[in-house]
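Backbones bend. To wit:
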Amino acid sequence: MPSDASVPDRITALVESLYRRSPLRRDQVAIPGTATTLEIVRPVDIDALLDQVVDDPEQNLPYWAELWPSGIALATAIAHAPAQVRGLPVLELGSGLGITAAIALAAGADLIATDYAPESLLLTRANCLHHTGREPRTLRINWRDGGESVLAEAPGGFPVVLAADVLYERRDIEPLLALVDRIVAPGGMLWLAEPGRPPAATFLAEASRRGWTASTDRHDGPWPDPGDAGVVVAVHRLRRERSADRS
């Protein structure tokens, strides 16, 4: 953790390293139901980011660059129950802009943030540093590929895994089920935030069949983008009581 005096310089260095690639803006993001408002640095031109990945065979689109309600809802859930992450090793799948990560760090989590986009990891570190004086450890991974580097960080699994808006398509379901079976510690929890897309319903049904139990809270904002008015995000806390298969 950097000294207080070094934090502004560190933030500046992180942001400038990204600004050379993409113009940035600052948005105010209120965490609903709390007194917390985050100032989030993010790219201005999402279309330019889309152009950069148009030929990507994996179609890893720059979802990370948006202010999604699911990430904010997951941050809200953590803010309302900080003891559930405080002092624990926590893994985040898909760090986005660092909104959930900042709240998890503020709650005292020992956080590793992951994403497939190096730009996401840079902004996650900068936004977390700005709000908490701390940076999470980061790993660049595509969780669809199995997450071997994640397992190396915690061979026995993580007591808490966070994931917001990771189930966009049917192709995401089986890789995520296989991964959480391996990386959530026995008796641990997956916190999954999703806005009601069909793949999430299929994932939850299959997780239940495989022995996971869930409790769910719903969050209705308000969200930063007026276009998201009316979006309701479910935050599921899934626990697997029996030992996960990590063979």
